Amino acid sequence: MLRLVLVGLLFLSAPRSQTTGVPGVNDLVATFPPAFVPMGSGATSCNSLGFIGGAPFTAFFVHDGGPSSTNAVLMLSFWGCTGAGFGFTPSAGPACAGPLAGLPFTNLWFSLPFSPPPIPWTSLGTVGGFTRFALPVPAGPGTVWLQSIAIDPCSPYGFKFSQAHDFSW
Q1: More confident residue, 106 or 164
Q2: pTM over 0.85
Q3: Predicted confidence (pLDDT) per residue in 46-58, tens digit
């Protein structure tokens, strides 16, 4: 019985430890051709953006880190996403996490696996807290998981994470 209770607590605690994208704080938004409709804003980590046909193409991502964010790196993994993540504590307070991030504040949770390590993808530049990425997608099939890490002096560690997304092609 104790084992069942512990497993239940593990599953109940996982959603609270995921990073939620909050526009103006730590939101990662994707656009894909041909329509380039924004996808994934406000989602919780390990969110699937679905199957995107037509590869090869270039996918575009924007990390909205808010005015205190100076740059970001997009991390790519081909090995999945973990909803429980790895938390850096203390978590960012209301000034950095924003009022919609929930309790506990979750913008310091890394949701990609550490092994093998994620692949860093550099940005096209940051203007006003918005960091833009262009990701060439080869002919498929394939699936990639992404999460951005933003440099932000407002955060207790000097960085914060977006939510993690995946898409297949």
Answers
A1: 164
A2: no
A3: 999 999 999 999 9
Residue 165 pairs in a beta bridge with: 47, 146
Identify whether the C-beta of residue 21 lies closer than 8 Å to the C-beta of residue 164.
no
Strand arrangement of the beta sheet that strand 130-137 belongs to? 27-31, 57-64, 130-137, 125-127
C-alpha separations of 141 from 30, 33, 56, 70, 159 in Å:
19, 17, 10, 34, 33
- Cis ω before 56 (30° cut-off from 0): yes
pLDDT of residue 50: 96
Q: What is the DSSP string of the chain?
A: -HHHHHHHHHHHHHHHHS-B--TTTTEEEEE-TTT---B-TTPBSSEEEEE--S-SEEEEEEEE--TT--EEEEEEESS---SS-EE-SSPP-HHHH-TTS-SS--TTEE-S-SSSPPEEE--SEEETTEEEEEEEE-SS--EEEEEEEEE-TTSTTSEEE---EEEE-
